[in-house]
Amino acid sequence: METGGPPAVVVKKVPVTPKAEIHKRFGEKACYTVEEVHEPTHNGCPGLAIPQKGPSLYRCCLQLPEFSVVSETFRKKMDAKQSAAAMALEKLGIIPATDTDAQDPWDALVARLSYLFSNEFLSSPHPLSCHFRAALQRVGHLSCLVPISVLAIYDAKLSSLCKTINPKVESDPLLIMSLVLKAAQRSSGSVTTCEDQLSLQRGNPYPPEIMQTLFNQQSSLAGSIWILAILIPCSEEKAVVPLMLKVAPNDYYLDVIAQKLGLCDASTVIISRTIGKASLEMRLYFCAPKSCLGDLSSGLLHSAEAVYPEGSLNKRGSYLSGQLIYGDAILASIGYKWKSSDLFYEDVSLRTYYRILVSKTPSGLYKLSRDAVLAAELPAAFTSRTNWRGSFPRDLLRTFCCHHRLSEPVFSIVSNPLELLTEFPGSQKKLKVTESSNQVINEGANDISGSVPTGSRETFSCEVKIFSRCQDLIIKCSPKQSFKKQNDAFQNASLRVLSWLNKYFKKLDMALEELTSCGDVLDIQFDSQLFIKEFSLAASVYTFWQSIGVQEEDQVLDSACINQLNGMLGDKVGFIDLKGPDSGVSPSNGWLVCIVYSICLVTGGEYEKELVESTEDFEFEIGSGAVISCLESVVAQMSVGQSARFYMKFPPQELIVASARDPSLILPVLTPGGCSLECTTTLLRVTEPLEDRMEQALFSPPLSKQRVDYAVQHIKESCASSLVDFGCGSGSLLESLLEFPTSLEKIVGVDLSRKSLAHAAKILYSKLSTSSDANASSTFIKSVLLYDGSITIFDSRLYGFDIGTCLEVIEHMEEDQAHLFGDIVLSKFCPRILIVSTPNYEYNVILQRSTPQEEDPDDSNHQQSCKFRNHDHKFEWTREQFGRWASDLAARHNYSVEFSGVGGATDKEPGFASQIALFRRGDECPRNADVTHKYSVIWEWNST
How far does the signal peptide extend, from start to end residue (predicted)? Predict the structure, then answer.
């Protein structure tokens, strides 16, 4: 081995895959057909009568000239293909060979280089073969010369071998060229170097017939083409500017780029990896150092740090590509693609360049996912999946890591079984109603996720780790918060990391102590040295963002913000023009609003306008920080149908260019102090928060948890041995009963939703099958059944149970059906005790912060003044209406009734949030001879 070169690396023998062996022997004659297989699965819940669709599985049929084979099912298509190929080889009696060419990566690199200059490769549908054909048509002394940088970039196998020899080639394009050059000198003359050129050529000329065929081929270009590109100067004091590339039909496009860089030809042009989507062929092109040309005789190029003069690092280009870029660079989208000899090209504008920069920040990723660079902002809270708009935090974090050449983030879910508590010390949130506006202030709601109710079910927390490409741990987020759903844990943990990174990118000169302090608040730890190393170039690239203030995550926007706008917007324009009558429907925190907005650049004394950004249907959640604060403040003061016009704080010019539909109209008038941004918006509609969202925000424990606790307490006191839950839904009450010691032996759930029943069955089976503790409450349960049926239809199998429950169900029926249910349940089913809960309509004044109008309580069809809590509610009764319904029902069927509730107090207006009627049978259960089975058994479990 030659001295001075990289040491040889011995690589283990790699077995050839079955599919590769089949291709080697049969080529295109081997035909693979993959079909998706839908196999029902019970998802670990035996006995469930509802078939459940399992994960997608694939089966492959391999057709060979003489026979065919069919694989087993697999989760991945490729696994199915490999299995079919393996079966075919076994049937043929063939043992796959071992790839011995990779024993020595240097030998493999030389062999690969020789193959690239072979006759066979020149006719292959490979992007690099197009460069060879273009190089053969170059004139003069450049004829047949192929730049080394082209070989290193466009052949993945060659690049992979170079990485095996020296992993540092990942970030240093010059180093990979050095290895290719050294391999060429080992090729025994099949590939030769050109004096004073960073190019290679074939040792022996191509046969005349190949050259003749090549010259007979006409260029894919009918005429010269003009391509818009971007020049990124090395000096940060110089602006990034557009330039035009003119490529004639027989020109080698790299020679054209070289001329724009002040070079004679493409030999010394270095090419970066793709930027953005690989399919777009967007790359950076820059010049190799002159000092490296003197080392050609030794076949070794030094690393970039040793060759380039100090201060020549192109920080903006290096940050874009994740590689070391030196000197002036050109950003262009041009090149060849697989199975096509046509030249691919797209314009790269200043808007494209700045959108790439924007996409490398957490907030920018969110802005682009909403297509609202000037209006959107990374939300401070993940309140619910239904209210989130744009890419989800977990996807944003993955994309951020990809853009910064970091490893895929690692998510670890931790299950947290809750302790059983009878009291909730210190958890009660206080509700205060202001006399002036009836505004509810949640004094205990600093936590964006709300308290997790104890004693209900297991909760989940998520730990996130971010590693470098070398697998060094850079960031670790270990939130203390727990969530009922795993997805909420994933998204909230991801959002914490994004929020912390966002603070850094908006204040890149932040002191290490402040960055650590912000991390402590968000339960984030980081390696300061590794972190600064990974993002060292960001400070010089995002200097224009320093003027953007960091929006506080816990900021609650109120009317005071609107008064602060005048002082913030500048001395020329600082008013808000509100038009349209007040419709009385205004948004509040937690509500989804939909607006149409447009942002214009206003210039000149006559206020000439150029449209910068507009959206016809833009949704966001009030109070989550999903838009810039001034826009959110204005919208919060509007009612549906109203329009507003106001002037925004002038953002960095680069953001304006990134958002502009046509930067050519914006750039000529974009002068500091000479223009302003005008925003007009119309509030189209508002959507109230879901019922459970409102309840969780205002009550701790949430109202749903309090209803379950109320039922469980009475079940304990009743000494009941059998229970039926009418309208059991997903089984939240039944699941809770397995966590408390009761006298129940048989529990039954009835619902019309088969999907909800299937979900309930899975949860209950999981709880029952894992309860091995002798003291666990579920060990007392002998039987569990779930029925599909309507609770307004009698089924004799549910006759005479000790206790029946119907929690927040009747309001989902029409009122006549609710009356029918009451009569059926007390006259036919005859439970000893019945617990019925339903929303108190009068409490909506607090939940929705509005004042109900005078209404006739006897009129069940009255026009509602407060909206119902859920869009699926058919009615909501006042206390008087509910009391009359329950009292009349009890009197007709010889039951007594007691009234209570949860979420409020009986002696304070407007009573309980959820009102409850508890019916007790006055005598022995009458004998019922009506034997009828109307329900379908969905799932059944027995302790035996």
Answer: none
> Which amino acid would we find at residue 713?
Q
Structure-block tokens of residue 424: 């909730």
Rounded alpha-carbon distances, angstroms, from residue 864 to 98, 123, 294, 851, 869: 77, 76, 87, 12, 12
Query: Within 10 Å of residue 835's Cβ, how many Cβ atoms?
Result: 25
pLDDT digits (tens, 9 = 90+) for 460-471: 899 999 999 888
Residues 6 or more apart in contact with residue 514 via CB below 8 angstroms: none
* Tokens standing for residue 597: 């907005």
Burial status of residue 778 (CB atoms within 10 A of its CB: 0-12, 13-18, 19 or more): buried
Per residue in 845-860, pLDDT tens? 887 663 333 343 334 4
Distance of CA 292 to the CA centre of its chain: 45
List the structure tokens of 349.
């504008």
For 593, phi and psi rounded to 5 degrees? -120, 150
Helices 173-185 and 105-116 cross at an angle (nearest 10°) of 80
- d(CA 702, CA 581) in angstroms, rounded, equals 37
Residue 597: band (very low, low, confident or very high) from pLDDT cuts 50, 70, 90: very high
Residue 699 Cα distances to 45, 271, 703, angstroms: 34, 60, 6
Q: Which two tokens stand for residue 514?
A: 């402040």
Q: 351-374 pLDDT, tens per residue?
A: 999 999 999 999 999 999 999 999
Residue at 248: amino acid letter = A
- State residue 298 phi and psi, 5-degree precision: -85, -10
Query: Which tops the pLDDT comparison, 89 or 429?
Result: 89
**pLDDT at residue 574 greater than cutoff 70:** no
β-pair type (241-247, 31-37): unpaired
Q: CB 38: neighbour CB atoms within 10 A?
A: 11
